[in-house]
Amino acid sequence: MNPPEDVLASLRELRAGDLPTHGGRTLAYVYDSGLSEVDSLGAAAHALASSANGLDPTAFPSLLRMENDLVAAASRLLGDVPGVVGSVTSGGTESCLLSVLAARDAHPEITAPSIVLPTTAHAAFHKAAHLFGLRRIDVPVDPVTFRADPAAMAAAIDDSTVLVVASAPSYAHGVLDPIAEIAAAAAARGVRMHVDACIGGWVLPYFARLGAEIPPFDFRVPGVTSISVDLHKYAYCPKGTSVLLHASAELRRTHYFASAGWPGYTMLNTTIQSTRSGGPLAAAWAVVRHLGDDGYLRLATSTREAVSRIRAGVAEIEGLRILGDPISTLIAFTGDDGFDLFTVADEMKTRGWYVQPQFAHLSSPANLHLTVTAANHGSEKEFLTDLASSVDAARASGPVVIDPAVADFVAALDPATLTSDQFAGLLTAAGLGGASGLPDRMAPINALLATAPAPLRERLLLEFLGALYTP
Questions:
Q1: Where is the secretion signal located (predicted)?
Q2: Which of 4, 160, 298, 368 has the lowest CB atom count within 10 Å?
Q3: Residue 187 and residue 180: Cα distance in Å, rounded?
């Protein structure tokens, strides 16, 4: 046996190579309140309940109580409408999956069901359609504002539609879709309407209380039948917890699963998972209970100020342009032709910041994405100074040059017939073969991937993911 202290030392050594999860330096993937007691409280609560199993609420009534408390808190925040029920899930993707599953199974008479969603909807809905066998109807958004087009969404609804989706806000650009108009169109056809508020649901209500003009997007809007909101985002809870709310118990019923057709216990599931550790649930319950309404209002105040300062500062940097009109905590910006944005991301990383590259898609150009949290408050000037320096460095270094032979090799690949040998050859050509690992600078790789059509990029990255997860 290895001594516990040695194991923990090894874990700390492994974690030393990760992006920082605190301090506001990683503007993607993590949500930092900047309050150290929140982390310690969440960890302690997680440890107290990690061995409990959410599979059977009658065996562990503490988990039942905590889940109902979290659902009630989310319901109060998102309209405080009577009759709303919900479930705590492992994250936004599971919440979105269940919203689609519930809509599909509510209409077994529709043999080829479809979902209608704007092209800016989260890819979790692509995953849901893939897993549950629904036809996806992608509706173009406004090419300038990136908001869903209510008329186009309404026109896309037909007799096979079981669910319409909109975002509050969309992840890619941080803009709020016209929820009321889309919900009205769905209701007129008797179709469910899901609002993906995974990233905005716990912060937009507080922004509204602080004076921001936030159009209604929750259960106060007629026609909204379900909403997803992640607790591990702007509720600042440990990962991974999300809440899926339904406007009524009848609407929720079809996302539940039961099976008595085997000799074991009758299997009852409120989520896709069966066994569920009580740890994440208890951690979220503790953090929400600790921070309370006043605490979240203070965190929203800090976050809103940070967003405002960063947005204004980005707009002042020569060559940068904000995409759309973000109203929440997400900012996406693109650049002019004088420099490479992927190089800017690399330069920011050398200065201790992680910003997320996003590839061009339809009218959305290649851009850099920022997820701003309360922990960014106070460091906005430093961030903007480093961003301006990174743009200058990218402009000085010139465009990323792709080896024509490698570009031709990629252009000749067919995602449907890509072989392991072809992928290995591409890795070698791109300098990723052998035991070299990831390069320090990703701009050349991202520039190469940007030349590939989306289906090929998906296949290449899946192959790369498989290579990473090979011991």
A1: none
A2: 4
A3: 10
Question: How does DSSP assign 46-99, residue by residue?
Answer: HHHHTT-BTT-TTT-HHHHHHHHHHHHHHHHHTT--TT-EEEEESSHHHHHHHH
Q: How far apart are CA 29 and CA 354, in angstroms?
A: 10
Residue 455 DSSP label: H
Cβ contacts of 427 within 8 Å, gap of 6 or more: 433, 464, 467
Angle of helix 404-411 relative to helix 443-450, nearest 10 degrees?
Answer: 40
Residue 206 neighbours by CB under 8 Å, 6+ apart:
296, 297, 299, 300, 301
DSSP assignment of 327-390: -SSEEEEEE-TTS-HHHHHHHHHHTT-B-EEE--BTTB-SEEEEE--GGGTT-HHHHHHHHHHH
**Which structure tokens are listed for 408?**
């031709």
**Under a CB-based contact definition with an 8 Å cutoff, are residues 326 and 173 in contact?**
yes
Using a pLDDT cut of 90, give the percent of the chain over it. Answer: 84
Phi and psi based region of residue 373 (left: phi greater than 0; alpha: psi -120 to 50; beta: remaining): beta
Residue 403: both structure tokens together: 């080896």
State residue 471's pLDDT score.
Answer: 84
- CA angle centred on 14, ends 440 and 424, rounded to 5°: 50
Could you tell me the two tokens for 342?
Answer: 């992927």
Q: Tokens 């409280």 correspond to what residue?
A: 41
Tokens representing residue 107 in the block: 């209409």
pLDDT at residue 360 greater than cutoff 90: yes
Average of per-residue pLDDT across 143-163: 98
- Cβ burial, residue 426 (10 Å; 0-12/13-18/19+): buried
